[in-house]
Amino acid sequence: MRWAIAAIMGVSVLASCGEPAPNPYPESARQRFAMSCPPESAVCTCTWDKITRTMTHEEYEEALARFRDTGLMDPRVTRARTQCIERHPE
User: Fold this and answer.
1) pLDDT band for position 8 (cuts 50, 70, 90)
2) What is the mean pLDDT of the chain?
3) Measured in Å, how far apart are the chain's first and last C-alpha atoms?
4) Considering the entire predicted model, what is its pTM?
5) Rounded to whole angstroms, how far apart are CA atoms 75 and 79?
């Protein structure tokens, strides 16, 4: 019985270590992203996945507005893109 409980606890701990589920984004946001970063690119697909898992749609829109105003990109977007470039050299 102890082994069963330990196994269940181990599985639940490992499951909690995975990436969070993607936040909901409207299709229009993905389409706008695809205009500058095509979905055929592994880097772009990876970047979009990481952004949607890291930021809410509202946070992403705020980051884009800040970038347009100041030229400074949100560190979460930069980190996502950098990690994907390192994993998928094209």
Assistant:
1) very low
2) 86
3) 51
4) 0.76
5) 6
Whole-number Å distance between alpha carbons of 32 and 19 = 24
Residue keyed to tokens 């499951």 = 15
From CA 76, how far away is CA 84, in angstroms rounded?
12
Length of the chain (residues): 90
The CA distances from residue 21 to 16, 46, 75, in Å, are: 11, 14, 20
- 3, 24, 40, 67, 68 from 75: Cα distances, Å: 43, 20, 24, 11, 15
The type of residue at 50 is K
- Residue-wise pLDDT for 14-55, tens only, equals 445 677 899 999 999 999 999 999 999 999 999 999 999 999
Measured CA to CA, the distance from residue 47 to residue 9 in angstroms comes to 32
